[in-house]
Amino acid sequence: MKKSLWRAAIGVPVLSLALLALPGAAQATPAAAAPGGVSAQAPAAALVTKLTHSQATSRFRAAGITWSSSGGCSDRYNSTCTSFEQINLATVQGAETLKSASGCALNVTGGTETGHASGTYSHWNGYKLDYSLSTCLNNYITSRFTYIGGSKYQSGSGNVYYRESNHWDVTYYNCGGC
What CA–CA distance (Å, rounded) separates 106 from 130? Predict the structure, then answer.
């Protein structure tokens, strides 16, 4: 009797682990350390779904979002490339939401490639995208979101849009109402 109760008790966790190992299951991983060994993980980092470069570009293409790089490449370990390897699903969904809500052309110039500032909510960890400046995007962000100082605006969902000299640097804490 005790053996059957024990087997029943461990059966559910074992089944749960087996389901997570199925091919095609979404990958949820804690935030990774940036190159150089600097840990960028929050004390209690939440699990997030990561996408490959190919998965992200397929979604961007379907949404009408373009991307470019000064080096014409997508190598995550080359700072002149624009990579989406290990980007958070919520970040991609946030870009899709921005494109849909604004109706503006979106061109991504920075993704998860090396060369950006480190930190928990960093490019490397999949939370940020850089967009080319455009009148449409500038007007949408500055008229719809709350100014929070220092060239920064916050959307109603909490994502932060920072206007730098030649691009918008956006931190996606969530999908922006997807």
Answer: 10
CA distances from 11 to 4, 6, 74, 145 (A): 10, 9, 43, 49
Instruction: Delimit the domains of the chain by residue range.
Output: 48-171
**Mean pLDDT, range 50-59, rounded to an integer:** 98
Q: Is the pLDDT of residue 83 over 50?
A: yes
Tokens 């490959």 locate to: 52
- The Cα 5–Cα 31 span in angstroms is 37
74, 156 contact by CB (below 8 A): no
Say if CB 160 and CB 153 are below 8 A apart.
yes
Q: What's the rounded Cα separation, in Å, for the pair 170 and 153? A: 10
Q: Which DSSP helix (H) or strand (E) runs through 5?
A: helix 2-20
Q: Is the dihedral of CA 19, 23, 25, 27 positive or negative?
A: positive
| Backbone angles phi and psi of 116, in degrees to 5 | -95, 170
State pLDDT tens for residues 109-139: 999 999 999 999 999 999 999 999 999 999 9
- Terminus-to-terminus CA distance in the chain, angstroms? 49
Are 50 and 29 spatial neighbours (Cβ–Cβ below 8 Å)? yes
Rounded to an integer, what distance in angstroms lies between the CA atom of residue 98 and that of residue 14?
A: 40
